[in-house]
Backbone:
């Protein structure tokens, strides 16, 4: 096949490829435009719908809010209002009516408030219940869509858990979408935007519940008319149109649109979407009904007629293809004419080169045709052929000279690179030696021109690769070290803030407490805990497994369980309390490590002080409590079990030690105190006996003095040596008066 034929073929292929690329780009652009249009459609319709819902809610429901509603309505729900209904009664008569469950009085009073708005269709319904769910009042519009909220078969969804519904209203009113179903299954489900609030008496307890609602279907009908679209509600997996509520026969095209939308949602597992169905000629969109409810549970389908737009787009696409095809054909004809003339001249030049290759170096004259010149490409080719013949002799002499210089240069290069490789180590040296061998192999064969190129290329590659490897290694190591250091420092600083935030900031007013808490690092595994209740106080000092960041995170878990295990209203012994903490911690650790192979947990002691009986109880997990009195100091030793350890059998209960005479001061500490080592070559631990001896020799029994005395002795004993572990020392004593005189808020958590 001639080159001319190939070139014409390539031009045709290029034109067709250009057409294909243009067609593909147009399709991709159309797809992108459709995706963008779909997203814009979702945003526009969602914003318009939510805005419409919010305006309707604010104008027609929120005016009855007991705190932020209209001024003339707020007084009806205020327990302290004086005669808001103008009956001449003292106080607010609505609250006694709810307490006495006087339905007639409630109906009379609430009808004054809601009957007018319901008749004017500002409200769809108003319902009142007592705090146990007994319906005491219900009034609905004459034009209710769907099931009537006041019918006996109506079942609002909040009745599924009315107690939780009431508790959710004790802190203020609530807006929610309420579905009311017909137990007789005669009417479709009613979807309502509601405002619910509780009637709170003087003790802030709910005596009644008011639920006001507007049927969403009415707003949806107006929304569809404003945007000139068809709509439907999807409740669960069932679609309902406005016509379904009016028992109208559903149009076939609307049925097909709904079916296609539900199939699309099922296939894509998506509930917020917008796409165009060309066969149905419509854009189908799905948006959530409300910001407070998931689209999978309740959403709106929107159907926008796009038939005219699709027809216009198809017509435009056909016209574009015709224009492109005509232009391509014209270009092909012109290219054929130009290439035919040019290739005839090129064939003449090729014939001249073939004769020169056979040894005929005489000058050959080329004929010029139409559209040709002596200075065009073919004329320049002839001159180049003649010059090439004259240069061949000179080229051979120059080749020999270059080969000699190249050999001398290569030998010097090998000597320098070998010397350089002796100064390198490891992979860099191996790599360079391998490159030298490759260079010698490449230079041992081939033509002079190939050897010259190989010499330059291989040498450049060897030096470039060595430089890149060394630079990359240095950069990678430096970056890894910087990133690792930053991450570690950031984690430790955050853990320190978190752990310090969990420590008690204030103490009970009837207890004198002094604490020394020193983590070995910025954070540690030690933590102390104080919980002040009206009749008792919990005090705990624990040492969690490990120190640093791992110990700190375990201390956070232990702190949470110390708080969670408290039973504020019933009697709880110290042993039962520590056992409950043990159970909670084991459950937590088993979720991440079923066998707890690392034996995470904590050692420590807990105290419970009962104010009324002035009795102190203690329970310990490998920990003791010291009591310092005027006649000396004693130690109460806890169980030899750790909290959270798998070695503690199921059902094990920690022992409770009762201290009926809580006089003097009490000391609790972690093994960070007793494990402090002396600075000698063979160090000795500070030890528990040394602590007990210091307490027995104490001349002042105040917690502050005891903590300072022990810490001063510890610092002298270690002689500047670093701490081996986190340490916590807590001392406390009870004031002689049981009265707190407002110094602390009973029941407020101190941590």
Residues:
């Amino acid at each position: 096949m001639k080159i001319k034929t190939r070139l014409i073929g390539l031009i045709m292929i290029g034109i067709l490829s250009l057409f294909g690329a243009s067609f593909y780009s147009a399709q991709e652009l159309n797809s992108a435009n459709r995706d963008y249009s779909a997203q814009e459609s979702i945003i526009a319709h969602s914003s318009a719908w939510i805005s419409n819902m919010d305006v309707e809610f604010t104008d027609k429901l929120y005016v009855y809010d007991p705190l932020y509603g209209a001024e003339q309505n707020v007084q009806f729900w205020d327990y302290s209002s004086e005669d808001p209904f103008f009956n001449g009664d003292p106080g607010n008569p609505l609250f006694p009516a709810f307490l006495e469950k006087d339905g007639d009085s409630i109906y009379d009073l609430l009808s004054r408030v809601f009957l007018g708005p319901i008749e004017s269709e500002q409200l769809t319904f108003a319902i009142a219940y007592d705090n146990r769910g007994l319906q005491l009042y219900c009034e609905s519009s004459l034009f209710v869509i769907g099931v009537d909220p006041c019918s006996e078969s109506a079942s609002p969804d909040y009745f599924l858990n009315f107690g939780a519904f009431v508790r959710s209203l004790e802190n203020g009113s609530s807006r929610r979408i309420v579905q009311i179903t017909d137990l007789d299954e005669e009417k479709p489900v009613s979807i309502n935007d509601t405002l619910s609030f509780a009637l709170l008496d003087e003790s802030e307890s709910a005596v009644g519940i008011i639920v006001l609602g507007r049927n969403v279907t009415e707003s949806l009908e107006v929304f569809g008319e404003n945007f000139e679209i068809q709509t439907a509600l999807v409740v669960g997996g069932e679609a309902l149109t406005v016509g379904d509520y009016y028992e109208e026969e559903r149009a076939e095209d609307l049925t097909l649109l709904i079916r296609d939308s539900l199939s699309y949602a099922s296939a894509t597992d998506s509930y917020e979407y917008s796409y165009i169905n060309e066969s149905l000629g419509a854009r189908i969109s799905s948006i959530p009904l409300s910001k407070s409810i998931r689209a999978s549970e309740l959403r709106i389908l929107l159907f926008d007629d796009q038939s005219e737009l699709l027809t216009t787009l198809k017509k435009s696409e056909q016209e574009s293809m015709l224009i492109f095809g005509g232009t391509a054909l014209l270009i092909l004809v012109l290219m054929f004419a130009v290439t035919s003339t040019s290739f005839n001249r090129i064939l003449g030049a090729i014939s001249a080169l073939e004769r020169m290759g056979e040894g005929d170096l005489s000058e050959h004259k080329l004929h010029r045709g139409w559209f040709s010149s002596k200075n065009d490409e073919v004329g320049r080719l002839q001159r180049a052929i003649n010059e090439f013949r004259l240069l061949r002799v000179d080229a051979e002499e120059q080749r020999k000279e270059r080969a000699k210089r190249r050999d001398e240069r290569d030998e010097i290069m090998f000597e320098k690179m070998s010397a350089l490789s002796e100064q390198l180590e490891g992979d860099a040296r191996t790599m360079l030696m391998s490159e030298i061998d490759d260079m010698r192999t490449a230079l041992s064969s081939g033509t002079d021109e190939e050897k010259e190129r190989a010499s330059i290329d291989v040498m450049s590659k060897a030096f470039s690769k060595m430089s890149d490897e060394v630079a990359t290694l240095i950069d990678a190591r430096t970056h890894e070290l910087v990133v690792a250091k930053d991450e570690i420092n950031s984690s430790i600083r955050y853990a320190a803030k978190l752990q310090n935030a969990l420590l008690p900031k204030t103490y009970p007013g009837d207890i004198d407490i002094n604490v020394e808490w020193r983590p070995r690092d910025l954070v540690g595994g030690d933590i102390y805990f104080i919980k002040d209740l009206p009749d008792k106080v919990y005090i705990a000092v624990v040492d969690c497994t490990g120190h640093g960041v791992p110990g700190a995170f375990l201390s956070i878990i232990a702190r949470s369980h110390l708080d969670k295990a408290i039973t504020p209203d019933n009697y709880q012994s110290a042993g039962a309390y520590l056992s409950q903490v043990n159970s909670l911690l084991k459950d937590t650790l088993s979720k991440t490590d079923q066998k707890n192979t690392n034996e995470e947990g904590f050692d420590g002691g807990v105290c419970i002080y009962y104010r009324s009986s002035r009795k102190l109880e203690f329970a310990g997990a490998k920990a003791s409590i010291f009591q310092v009195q005027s006649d000396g100091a004693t130690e109460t030793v806890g169980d030899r079990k750790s909290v959270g350890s798998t070695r503690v059998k199921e059902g094990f209960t920690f022992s409770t030690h009762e201290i009926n005479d809580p006089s003097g001061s009490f000391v609790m500490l972690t093994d960070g105190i007793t494990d402090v080592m002396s600075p000698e070559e063979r160090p000795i631990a500070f030890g528990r006996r040394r602590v007990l001896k210091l307490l027995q020799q104490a001349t002042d029994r105040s917690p502050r003095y005891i903590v300072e005395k022990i810490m001063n002795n510890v610092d002298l004993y270690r002689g500047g040596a670093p701490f081996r572990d986190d340490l916590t020392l807590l001392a406390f004593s009870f004031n002689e008066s049981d009265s707190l005189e407002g110094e602390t808020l009973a029941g407020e958590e101190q941590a």
Q: What stands out?
A: The longest strand covers residues 190-200.
